[in-house]
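TL;DR need structure tokens for one chain.
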Amino acid sequence: MHTVIAICTYQRPAGLNRLLDAIAELTLPDGVGDREVCVVVVDNHEAGAGLNECEIRAPDYRFALRAICQPGNGISEARNASVAMALEANPQYVGFLDDDEWPEPVWLSELVRVLEENRADVVGGPTRSVFPEEAPTELVNNPYFGADMNLNDGTSCVLQAAGNFLIRAETLAETTPTCFHPAFAHSGGEDLAFFTQLDQKGVSMVWANAAIVHEEVPANRLSNEWLKTRVVGIANSRVRVMQMLKPGVVPSLIRVAKTCALAVQASLFTLAGVASPSLAQDAEQLRWKFIGKLTAHLNRKTTRPEGH
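>> reply
TL;DR here they are.
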């Protein structure tokens, strides 16, 4: 098997179908046939809507399509189940996508090309958000939507988001059985912990700028409350990841110092925001970020809504 594409889904049968449609249109790397690609899907909800869609599509689908239902214990368990399914096929590579995304036709070819040209172990690409027409400009340009590191092909990096990456199967197998840590199952941050651990082990990661994945932003994500939840959650999980993977008194003091500096920055922006609406928006997000980090220092973790 050349590549297994692993997908986790949660109550998004329409999104999953759109993703499977896009995967069926992929341009494969030179010399790779349809029988050398497999798609595995883990449905993380007990109703099994995604599982049902896969069972309907499997007989006529371009690639081998396998699906299981793994309900109830958050995104980490679902991702780990997808890893186990993928490795059972003994592939050369494993790629990851989420059910609210869809890749460009060259996605897989570009990931493989950049990985091999740079002799890397892992490669990731941009996830670019697709907004409703009514989305305000300040949200469209907000960095908390999508995941694009804006790097040139082959640039060394530490990836952060699991919705668009490819990894050599032997590298992935070395992280099993718990690739994605259960401590982040309901908060998010399991992907950042995964990539941080890879980096600590010396695993090489690079960027593929043309391996583009699009991500739907539904109307319910345009609210200020949703954005606050996202900013606070990301900041909280980042600190908790580093607490777990970079323990010790000195690293802890450095993290606390950075959070204190963030508090000062947020205060200054808040004062400046009285005269500037754009700075007021930046100040608000800095305050949210501070709240997320502070709660992590206080040993409290946020909970991300399922399917967030």
